[in-house]
Design goal:
By secondary structure, this protein is mainly α. The chain is built from two helices and no strands.
């Protein structure tokens, strides 16, 4: 399965927020975790959407 640009973007955003977790002040770490979770949520939803759309496409050998 190949990931689209949107999926790669949200996966990268999620990883960036997690990478910035150690230098973040302790009182604001929840923001990084929340934003990483939100970006991960969109990554999962967009991946499900792409897989469902790919399954709905007719195959070359199918007849109409």
């Amino acid at each position: 399965m190949r990931l689209g640009r949107r999926q790669v973007f949200f996966l990268g955003v999620s990883l960036a927020f997690l990478a910035l977790l150690p230098p973040t002040p302790p009182e604001f770490r929840w923001v990084n975790l929340a934003m990483a979770a939100l970006a991960g949520f969109w990554f999962v939803l967009l991946t499900i959407e792409q897989v469902a759309a790919r399954r709905a496409e007719p195959h070359e050998g199918d007849q109409a």
